[in-house]
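Re: [ENG-882] Designed sequences occasionally contain unexpected residues at chain ends

Forwarding the minimal case from QA. Structure tokens:
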């Protein structure tokens, strides 16, 4: 089966690595393979070839055995070697039919591939996977397999707001005390755009692309944040001396916004 990428304006290299991923995945997993889906920026329509990764989900019939995990791990190592530009940008998870339907608490562990790693690790899938499920079910790109709404239960606005709340306090609030990640300019811009989308989701209970959320934020939050938001979408990256402190302030603003809801 060929990857169903013709409908979407992917970069040629992205097309190629997805075709290779699907063909090799089906060869390795055989009857265990159910479907391959794209999440993240490729699904939301805000993919940036300079900064974005390739978020994917593979749904399997059952939990993968140790031998199957080793085979899939080898597949990703080969993709990393043969397609270094885009093979290294793959980031995704392998979740069974029984587990993908709804988020489990406490979080269940599933095989996961980290961007730039090329090696699978079995690790807990936290509240961010409520957001991934929402994107895949509502906006996801189906490269092979049944429609994702047949596999994933609907996610309510309340559940989505709770997921972004968990990320806000579990991931972003600690950066106010230890902002080492924000020293990297690309991560700083990612933080700014994520805060825009978090604010939008808290307000409306749904998820939109980062550009849509950013445009809303520039209009609704007043002129204070507009230069920083606009800067986060510039390329090549031009850093202002104040952007580090402003990013921290925007994170504080988003936390305060949630507390006031």
């Amino acid at each position: 089966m060929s990857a169903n990428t013709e409908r979407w304006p992917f970069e040629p290299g992205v097309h190629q690595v997805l075709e290779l991923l699907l063909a090799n995945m089906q060869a390795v997993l055989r009857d265990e393979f159910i479907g391959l889906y794209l999440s993240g920026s490729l699904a939301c329509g805000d993919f940036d070839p300079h900064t974005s990764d390739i978020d994917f989900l593979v749904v399997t019939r059952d939990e993968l055995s140790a031998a199957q995990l080793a085979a899939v791990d080898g597949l990703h190592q080969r993709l990393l070697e043969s397609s270094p530009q885009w093979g290294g940008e793959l980031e995704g998870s392998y979740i069974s039919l029984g587990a993908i339907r709804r988020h489990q608490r406490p979080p269940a562990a599933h095989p996961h591939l980290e961007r730039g790693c090329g090696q699978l690790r079995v690790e807990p899938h936290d509240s961010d996977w409520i957001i991934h499920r929402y994107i895949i079910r509502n906006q996801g790109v189906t490269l092979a397999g049944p429609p994702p709404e047949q596999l994933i239960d609907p996610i309510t606005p309340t559940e989505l707001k709770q997921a972004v709340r968990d990320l806000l306090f579990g991931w972003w609030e600690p950066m106010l005390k230890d902002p080492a990640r924000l020293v990297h300019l690309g991560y700083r811009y990612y933080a700014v755009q994520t805060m825009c989308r978090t604010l939008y989701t808290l307000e409306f209970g749904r998820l939109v692309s980062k550009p849509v959320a950013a445009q809303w934020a520039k209009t609704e939050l007043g002129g204070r944040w507009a230069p920083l938001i606009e800067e986060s979408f510039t390329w090549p990256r031009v850093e202002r001396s104040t952007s580090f402190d402003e990013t921290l302030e925007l994170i504080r603003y988003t936390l305060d916004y949630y507390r006031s809801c």
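QA comment: On inspection the terminal residues look reasonable. The longest strand covers residues 54-60. Proposing we downgrade this to a documentation issue.
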